[in-house]
Amino acid sequence: MNIILPFNKPIEAYNPADAITTSILSGYNDRDELINCLWQTFSFAFEENNNNYLDVHLWHQSAKISRKMVPRVILSKSTQVSICNFLVEALQNHYYIFLVLDRAKIKIFDNTTFFPHLVTIYGTDNINKEFYIADFDGTKGYVFLKIPFNEVNDAYHSIMDKIQNLPEAGIEYDWITNIELNKYNSNLCTTMREETIAEEIGIMLQSIYPANIDNLYNGNIARFNQTKFISVPIQNTLAGWNVFIELITHLKKAIKDDIFIIDRKHFYFFYAYTLLLKEKVDILSLIKPEGEENKILNLRKKVEKILSCYRICLNMGLKYLLNNQTEILERTITLLEENTLKLYYAICEFKEVLIEKRK
User: Fold this and answer.
1) What is the pTM of this model?
2) What is the pLDDT of residues 230-264, one digit of tens each?
3) Phi, psi (degrees; rounded to nearest 5) at 129
4) SS3 state of residue 126
């Protein structure tokens, strides 16, 4: 039996781990739950090969999506279950599969050496023996592919060969050593929860670091260094509004010293957050409280204008990554600073509107 689970391009997508929830919710056209997700921003820095990296995230959890982890080692010890059979059975039970594969073993990719990469499997064509895979490409966003069973099998076991020699793996290796299964619960009804959004804004403005984030990393991040996976200590963990400040600081440092590494995620972060804020404001504008119509309309216009400027910043940032012209990066940072200040005031204004609605 063939099965294809609903899975669309998400509202925000700059990182595969951050986008899977919104892709599932978009597949079910569940806009309310997309808005209700408790979105939190956090970041951390780390050093590798004498370079300084800043990893930024829009992190969220949905009450409608259950999540479980299946250790690869359990499957490897079973002689009765092949990985492809396991994946097909999971899909038949309506689980989305999030796991690391070696791109070098998949012909459609141009990698010739070992390349661990997260993908989402959302369907199977059992007649042609192919999986439907959503692959997040760093420059193109999502690419939707059909990959033969045998290539997925080889790509999976190539990862297994690398992780079998890991020393007692800490939780920072979970994204490599486990298979993540996600299931959408359509029976759980949700409506817009102003209290959740208000809580989210409070966390943002106070820069409160989510306690459960530590359980994802435990002070380290797993990286692949030429021949093996290694654990790298993370530094300077930040959350909320401090992430925006730190990100702009990191970009400024990169102008003076090329050991501070920039990637497209840095530029997209501003745009992605504001796009989600716009979605929330749009929903609120449909159920605007009496007497607040003009205030909400003006707020919506402000957020749309900031979003438009961040789109320009994103395009300029991508242009900088292509040609490495310092002048473009300097102009981009100036525009980011101007609009990030405006964003702060827009968030504060949004909080006031929510407070008024809840009275």
Assistant:
1) 0.84
2) 778 888 888 889 999 999 999 999 999 999 999 88
3) 55, 55
4) coil
